[in-house]
Amino acid sequence: MLDVFFAYAMLGVFAGIMAGMLGIGGGVIIVPALIFIFDWQGFSPDVIVISAVATSLGTIIFTSVSAAWAQIKRGAVDWVIFRRWVLLVVVGSFFSGFIAQQMQPLVLKMAIALFLLLVSLIMLSKWVPNPSRQMPGAFGTSVLGLLSGVVSGLAGIGGGNIMVPLMVFFNVAMQRAAATASALGFPLATVGAFGYVVSGWGSQKLEWSLGYVYLPAMLTIATFTVLMAPIGVALAHRMPAPVLKRCFGAVLLIVSARMLITANM
To answer: DSSP H helical segments within 125-214, as ranges?
Structure first.
């Protein structure tokens, strides 16, 4: 049991630093790691992926508060974007739990991996947005917010992996995009996790769980991510934006490659 606790703790330390530094909520690290750990623990294959996603969102509730507060104190959050996206991101995130329940575990895992691979390649490339491009109007903003919520909830990643590249695409500075994604991560993760609790209510396939959220993992990981997220925020504000962007892409590339390699194992 101690080895499982140690695995959760180390995952929380690393995910917390990445969450604070890149505004990704830590889910991009937590989901694939939990898939591996849950399999190692001998959980039912039917619930490994969806429980990893749900549990990740549960940890991000706590992580995002820590990271967002550190960003708010630095005045780095773009509150205009926050107000435009927050409601739609929340709605999309809630319904993602019910969508994920209808998907085959392998399909869900592959979809998450391919999405992360695409984003990683964009962030690692020398692509730069058209300097005249700005955030779209009300309808375009609404579509982007809703899509961000659905995809984030399906992947259990807290939204930063989608919202940060989107904001960078529309010429929001990398540090500001990461800060805004951290602030949006709290409502997104809270409602998204609740969706997985409701959709998994009554499931008897996983003990010590609330719906699909596995509580021992969530509480242990969250404890360490909360402690480490402010350190990640401090690192982010000391790094040049291009370096931060490449770090973001490298993390996504490693995670997506790992998920694709192990998808059929």
So the answer is: 138-155, 160-169, 174-199
